[in-house]
Amino acid sequence: MEFEDFAPKLSMLLYGVIGFVVVVGGLLLLLDVVPNYFARRREAALVAASLSTSDGPAPTLGRRVRKHREGLLGLAFLLPALLLLLIGLVIPAIRTILLSLRNGDSTAFVGLDNYLWIFRENDIVRVLLNTAGWVILVPLLATSVGLLYAVMVDRARFEAVAKSLIFLPMAISFVGAGIIWRFVYAYRGEGDQIGLLNWLWTLVGGEPRQWLNEGPLNTFLLIVVMVWIQAGFAMVILSAAIKAIPSDIVEAARLDGVTPWQMFWRVTLPSIRPALIVVIVTISIGTMKIFDIVRTMTNGNFDTNVVALEMYNQAFRYQQAGQGSALAVFLFILVIPIVIFQIRNLRRQREG
Can you give the pTM of this predicted structure? Predict the structure, then answer.
């Protein structure tokens, strides 16, 4: 039997195993864990009663029973979340991986051809380069602007009002932000311009331009929208980190006669480094999955396409489920190193 004929049966077998584990696990929980929980409660009560009248190794037994009971309670609370995670994430991820190994209509096994297609097609390579530009520029610009906001707003008279206005774009959906900025970049040919950017451009003597049609400038203009949204998030986190710097460190630095620039580079930045990493990692993951802004403003035309939008196009517009799934898996693989870095960083902070 060829592997192409065996692959569908393998998929069904895998789903059957997963379903069997879920069903059997649920039955074991109902038939074993729950009755044993009440039995152990009675046993723990008896042990606690005996501890009040006897000495010796009984306290160790009591602690062991109590820890076991707490572990079962923890498992009972975690089980619904684990089941939802299995149904909503693990099973779809496995199915996506299996689809990425098959052709467009999932009728034949093609192996790694869909992954090789990602690097063979010039258009897809362009998509990867665009996404790399987003992932590099957005976290750096958004974090830098947010840090600048945090430093400046902390000295403002109406700090709460200023922070609210800067954070306000975070309350707008990416689609809404895309529509707003389409008006900013709007082009109306000759005559009066309704787009803010073209209006300002004509004031300095320039000719109206179709900004979103000109690459690679159009990609950078889309990146500006994401920076506008994420800068408020960065400002809130970094402002809280700056306020958490111990006052004795700041006072000692001032007594040493440091300049404001030295205070920023030698005291503020090293003190807020963990918050900076969290902000950069969070924005990087969100940027890697960017879809709405590009879809709303250019629909990926004029060399502005990104991986998430191309994944959607391949899977739903062109009916190429295998290639769309391969892009999804590739995007997931790109996110994994960032997540691992963040977990290791948090572990080092906890140990330190």
Answer: 0.75
